[in-house]
Amino acid sequence: MDALNYGIAVSGSDLIARMDSDDKMFPSRLFEQVRLFNLRKDIGLVATLVKHVPAGSHDTRGHQNYVKWTNKIISSQDISINRFIESPFSHPSVMFRKELISKYGGYQNGDFPEDYEMWLRFLQNHVKMEKINSVLLEWSDRGNRLSRCDPRYRLEAFQKLKAQYLKYWIESNVPPSLPIHGWGAGKFARKQIHYLREYGIRINSIYDVDFKKIRSARNDYNVVHYNEVPQPGLCFIVVLTGGNKVRGEVNDFLVKKGYEVEKHYLHLA
Q1: Average pLDDT of 110-134?
Q2: By Cβ atoms counted within 10 A, which residue in 117, 171, 197, 238 is the most buried?
Q3: pTM higher than 0.85, yes or no?
Q4: Are 103 and 150 in contact (CB under 8 A)?
């Protein structure tokens, strides 16, 4: 973190490109990113699609799935609405305007993934971000990567960070009079609801498809069947389900019911 901030501080360029020593970028990567910056003065950060490259004998399936997901998050709208699922960028692929550091601060030290926290902070300040729709970097998946070894990248740290920035987002985008509901009553979802409560976000009702979870819900969780989801405008729903397939099914249900993402609901993984 200190090395990143020092490198940015001594840089003489108004654009900062990030990369690790064992990753490989394609010859056109920097050209394409700079070109988009020159064409779009409204954009503050440009990333690229990446190719997952296993490096070692460790299990890389989880990271492969993450790369597949993040390579589908391309437009500024996609990045905005998916920000609370996972970090929408592979860190080594980003390029951003140096002025963002002066305005909103650089990499912060704390019990959280430093890159993801900075992206969420930029997004909270309405920085527009996009990706080049091309694979322009080979991302080496080492067994000793920080995201595998550093406690700042543990699941709990991600959940707390998402809860913190979702609180900021809700305060800016959801009317105070509108009740906040959740979707998902599993163990992971309940843990996330716990962190949301710590940041002052009260989940009034939780929707789920599993009658067993509904019947066994503890008294402090008002878990009801998803058929009881009200018409749009009567609540704001935080979707807490994990997995792309289930998340897609919930999304389809809400859209068919007339819900609009970011207006009536948002995903939080």
Answers
A1: 96
A2: 238
A3: yes
A4: no
